[in-house]
Structure formats: structure tokens, C-alpha cells
Amino acid sequence: MQLALAGSMIGDWAYATAVIVWAYSVGGATAVGFFAAGRLLVMAIVAPFAASLADRFPRKRVLIASDLLRCLGVLAAVACMYAGTLAAPIFVIAVLVGLVGSVFRPAQMAWVPSLVDTPEELTASNGTSSTIESLAFFVGPALGAGLIAAFDVETVFLFNAATFLWSMVMVAGIHPRASAVVAETADQAAEGEEPGALAEMFAGFTLVWQDRDLRMVGFLVCAQTVVAGASAVFAVLFAVEILETGPAGVGFVDSMFGVGAIVGGFYAIARAPRNKLAWDLGVGTFLWAVPLLLVVVWPSPVMVFAAIVVMGFANPLVDVNFATIVQRIAPDRVLGRVFGAFEGALIGTMALGAAAMPFLVDWLGLSGSLVVLAVLVSAVVIPYVPAIRRLDDRLRAPEGLSLLRSLQIFAPLALAAQEAVARQLVRVPVAAGEVVVREGDDADRFYVIESGRVEVSQSGRILREEGPGDFFGEIGLLRNVPRTATITALEDTVLLSLARREFLDAVTGNPDANTAAEDIATRRLRF
Predict the structure, then answer these.
(1) Of 454, 435, 289, which Cα lies nearest the Cα of 374?
(2) Residue extents of the structural domains in the chain
(3) Which of 176, 216, 493, 520 has the highest local Cβ count within 10 Å?
(4) In angstroms, how far is CA 235 from the centroid of its own chain?
(5) Do 71 and 14 touch, CB atoms closer than 8 A?
(6) Residue 370 and residue 45: Cα distance in Å, rounded?
(7) Spacing of C-alpha 68 from chain mean position
């Protein structure tokens, strides 16, 4: 997955560089400006709805289709160039390639939780992706510029087509759990209803707005992307007014940002075992504000480079923890649409920052503009500190998760689903000699033995004893029949109990889990 992402993003950045160079050659700065603004605007509007494909179809197919269509689009643009067509078709193709590509990242982020086994692995995977993004930001344009200098724009387009083919081959080589593939297309059946097309497309926005934690995460990340968009302007002003290198000095500023981002990516991965995702997200967002104030107080080259390194360091703290939080708390059935909703919002706020910064500079000057941006971010982060701490409590691994994950029935579930089930477990202490369930009673709960021992009997005949890590109660729930045996505590015992509906939702909604449960039930009934 990471190799596919690297190919996709490096090719995208090289292609973006080539398109801008080509656009400048046919229409000057005006053509570049209109193309860039129009492309971002269209992507911001369409991306949230295009991302719904990641929830309606298997994500592997969506990623492959995205790579294939982008490859064909770029090749079509090359054909137009060689044929000497008008510029309009090439601009249209460039916008369409961007639109098709807008589904890749949401689908990739929505699929990753199905490929990992622990929260720490999920954070580490997102940290790796963030580092790859930071590297691609420099490697892609550098390759694009180098190929243009050595050959021509058409060569960069062909290189980009090759990177999309590479990404497609890497995705094709991924083999997730079979249950993860089937579950992706079974979400509506599990819900028992078919929402309208409009409601389905807006499901990501709806969930983000209804969940206060997702809504808070959205505000934090959008505040950061406003500054990120504005940085396209103030980085040039740093180079001209403080570094005194002219506009070319932006390259030095970008390089320092990249150094900080790479270090921040490794730091974010190292922080994974601490499970302070929301806190680190808040800190990362805040670190996009403080350095700006330091530049205002001490406008020197040293402080500019220091500030940019800190902001680069903060970037993966935001990106990694944002992605991991959303993956941990958003249901898998709408995860692609949730990321699509965020994608549209983040593109929009970045464009807002880039558009507003020149007006702020004209009105308040560089220093005043930086103060406004810093105050804006701080005003978003500081009031949310209590909510950030509460979210970290929500993300803390629930009690009973490790025991639940060890059970054959629940092992096939994705990490987020396992955590959701573990949070619904109820601890039930049982005294020695007490009957937990009685043969012939209605089946209403599933039980896991945390400690102690129980005896299983049927019609007065003892069948077996069970201890820690064993479970019972699944037969009546799966077959919708009364209890088939009596369970009596042999000693003081602690059980973890799961209600009928929660058990059936988790197990029957996952093919592998359902098969495992049915096999166990059949085997126990046989003996």
C-alpha cells in the first residue's frame, strides 16, 4: 500500500509541475492561475461525492480504477500534445485526472484499517504515509523539473503514466482478509435500509456533523489548512522581505519545511504506543500558530528557518493523528465518505487561506497578517483542550479488547469493529454455585470468561468445564433457539457479557466471523 501511495503521489506532483509549465507556455501566469484555482475548486466540490465510491465498491477495485483512469487520461493528454490539438482538451483532461485522483487518498485511508491488527500499527502506517507525502512533495516536482530540463513536458506525462501503472500493480498485489472485501459491499444490507442517493452521498458530512469528536477534529484540521494555504503567500514574502533572496528563496523555505516534516513523521510513529492521538493533533495544530508569532517578534532569517522547521514538524502530527482518529471512530461503512467530506473541506480551507492572505497583507502588512493567522488557530485549539482530553479517553483501548481479539469468533473483525464490540461488553461477577444460564431459557446474551471456571451441563449430564478465554451463549443467539445447556459457576467467576443485538450485528455482518461462529455452534451441538 505504501509503495502504491509513493508511486501515485510522486507521479501526481511531477505531473502537476509539468502541467503548470505547459500552461504557462500557452497562456502565461493568467492561464496558470485560472487552471490552479479552477482545479482546486472543482476538486473541493466533487471530491466528497467521488469518495462515496470507496464505500459502495471494494476499495481495492476503486484504487485500481483510479490509477488506470488517471494513466489513460495522462496518455490521452500526451496524444493531444503530439497531435497539436487546441489547449482546451488538455486543460479538461488535467482537471478530470485530478478529479479521478481525488478518490485515491480517501479510499486508501479507508482501506488501511482492514490491513493492520493493532492501533499502534494503524498510527505507524499513517505516519509512514505522511512521510511519503512529505518526500513526494519534493521528489515529484524535482523529477518533473529535471525531466523537463533534460527532455520535454511530454516525457514527464509519460513518466506520470508509468507511476500510475506502478501504483496499480502494487495495489493489485495486496490481499486483505476475505471478510474485509465482502464486508465493504455488505454495509447497506447490515443496516437493513437503502438510503436515497442524495443521503448516501452526504453521509460523510452527516456523520462528521453529528459526532462531536469528528466535528472538533474537522475544525482543528481546517484551521491548520487555512494557514497551510496562506503559507503559499507568506513563504514568498519571507524569502523576499526577510531572507532577501528574492522569490527563488522559496525553495530554501520549502526545503526546511520538508526537513521538519520528515522528522515529525518519525516522531508521530514513535508516539503511537502512548495513544495520545487527540492531544498530539491539538499540539500539531497549535504549532502552526506559535512560530508565526516568533517571526513577528524577531523577523530574522534564523527565526524564519526555525519557524518553518517547526511548522514542518507539526504537519505530520496533524495529518497522522487526524487520519488515525477518523479511522478509529468512524464506522467502516461510511469511512470513505467521511474522508471525502474532510478532503473537500480541507481543499476548500486551503484555497481560502491562499486567497485571503494577499488581502490581509495589503490591509495589515506581513506582521499583522501573521498575527491574525496565529490568533485564528489559537482561538480554535485552546477552547477545545477539555474535549481533546475527552477524545483521548474515548480512543483508549477498552477493557476486554485483548481477550475479545483472542476469540476465534471476533478475530476476523477489523480493529475498529473489535473496539466497538469491546466497549459494549458488560462485566458480570458470578458467585460460586450460581447458575448463569439455564437450559430452556430465552437466549439474550453472549458471555466470555475473564476469570474463574464454569460447568456446562445438559439434561443433568456434565459436558465440560470452561475457564478464562472460553465463551458460551452463541448457539441460542445464532440459531434463535432457547438455551441448549445450563452454565453453573464452579468458583467465583467474572464474565464479560454482550447483548444479543450487539453480538449478532458484529458476527453476522462479517462473513469470516459468522462462519467461525457457525462452525463452533455446529461442533458443540454435535457433541
Answers:
(1) 289
(2) 1-116+135-185, 195-396, 401-526
(3) 493
(4) 28
(5) no
(6) 28
(7) 22
Q: What is the DSSP letter of 452?
A: S
Domain 1-116+135-185 shares a fold with domain 195-396? yes
CATH of domain 195-396: 1.20.1250.20
Contact 294, 186 (CB under 8 A): no
Report phi then psi at 462, rounded to 5.
Answer: -75, 125
The fold of 1-116+135-185 is: Growth Hormone; Chain: A; (1.20.1250)
HEC string for 22-65: HHHHHHHHHHHHHHHHHHHHHHHHHHHHHCCHHHHCCHHHHHHH
Measured from the Cβ of residue 372, the count of other Cβ atoms closer than 10 Å reads 17
**b/e burial code for range 95-108 (CB count within 10 A of at least 16 → b):** bbbbbbbbbbbbbb
Q: Is 347 helix (H, G, I), strand (E, B) or coil?
A: helix
Q: What is the mean pLDDT of residues 453-476?
A: 91
Alpha-carbon span 399 to 44, nearest angstrom? 40
Q: Domain 401-526 falls in which CATH fold?
A: Jelly Rolls (2.60.120)
Q: How far apart are CA 274 and CA 394, in angstroms?
A: 14
Q: Which long-range contacts (CB under 8 A, 24 or more apart) does 188-191 make?
A: 188/333, 190/333, 190/505, 190/508, 190/509, 191/333
Is the pLDDT score of 205 beyond 50? yes
Q: In what order do the strands lie in the sheet with 426-430?
A: 426-430, 493-499, 445-451, 471-472
Whether pTM > 0.85 for this model: the answer is no
Q: What is the pLDDT of residues 307-335, one digit of tens each?
A: 999 999 999 999 999 999 998 888 877 88
Separation between Cα atoms, residue 24 and residue 27, nearest integer Å: 5
Using DSSP's 3-state secondary structure scheme, residue 90 falls into helix
CB-CB neighbours of 364 under 10 Å? 13
Give the H/E segment covering residue 485. Answer: none
Nearest of 191, 216, 219 to residue 203 by alpha carbon = 191
- As beta bridge partners, residue 448 has 471, 496
Cβ burial, residue 121 (10 Å; 0-12/13-18/19+): middle
Q: Tell me phi and psi for residue 410, to 5 degrees.
A: -100, -10
3 state SS of 445:
strand
